Amino acid sequence: MNPALQRTVELVLIILIGYLLQRKLNAKQQLEGVKLIILNVALPATIFLALLKIELKASLLILPVAALGFNLYMLLASRFFLPVLQPGISGKQRRTLSLLLPSLAPGLSCFPFILAYLDDSSLALAALADVGNKFFGLILLYLLAMQWYHRRNSETNGKSTTGKLKGLLLSLIREPINAAIALALILLIAGLGLEHLPAAIASTINRFSLMMVGLVLLFIGMAVRVGKSDLRQIALLLSWRSGMALLFSGIFLLLFPALSPAMALLILVFPQSSCSFWPYAHMHLVGKLETDRNIKGPTFDTDLAINILACSLPFSSLFILLIFNFGSFFSTGWISLSLGTGMVLIGLMPRIWSWIRRQVFAPEAIKDIG
Questions:
Q1: Fold entry, domain 3-354
Q2: Among 4, 242, 278, 367, which residue is least crowded by beta carbons within 10 Å?
Q3: pLDDT over threshold 80, residue 205
Q4: pTM reported for the whole predicted model
């Protein structure tokens, strides 16, 4: 079996095992325990190790900047298109989608395929680009989630603007994920790497990091509750998201036509990465604050977030696999733009069909026909 395809099957099987474990869960607290380990141990360790492997070079700053540009592009597109894509959704669902859809998780859905189809140098470039994505997912989306939380509950928590900003900064410092990022950056600036840490500490962090992929996939499988109607809605959203990513990649390929085939493929597959687990971590933090303060009306819909995460991973993995198997076809800028437009239209199809029905079968039209 192709190594990349085998990797995809492995990830999907772990989600399936997690789904089968749902019947073994006797209480919600058991699922919360798995989530606690992920957010406070495995994820911070993984991020700490990933950052320490980065070599800081000024000439390579274009890669994380480009990745961050894509994240911001998707954030603006999500805020603009969501009222059209899902006109009947609630405010908490809209905020949830606005956080999830612009995020990327290349480590799970993209890096294995880059390693299998390209080479180590391409993987290193993708990892460097992921720095911009990490900054967006861990810092900017966190600040956005907390801003929405404080804006919605300004009357309930009775804080002034200064008080809210102070609370925001305190929450930022207390998060294990953010503490791991800060510590890793301090070590990088000081010229220190993982090899400079005591062997016992480095080994412990590495062992915690190894738990990350399996735990996240099991958690997604155990927590997912996708009905047929939800599956249809999520498939349309993911189709739109993938189409918007192809449009971004197509414009990039047209602007820089002299790129190598490997770099062109990298530009195509990186934005196709599945939705990240980090926005869910921010939503969980907000939900915990609301529970502790007995605030009614959650800011985010965490059940919807889990369902999207569960569907996004196989969707993105299969699409990335398709791109790599037909790389010369996809790597043409105009082809990417055309396919992206088609997938965006698929995501908008219910709204387009609804508009056609109103125009053709409106009462006035029927009356005129009669």
A1: Na+/H+ antiporter like fold (1.20.1530)
A2: 367
A3: yes
A4: 0.75
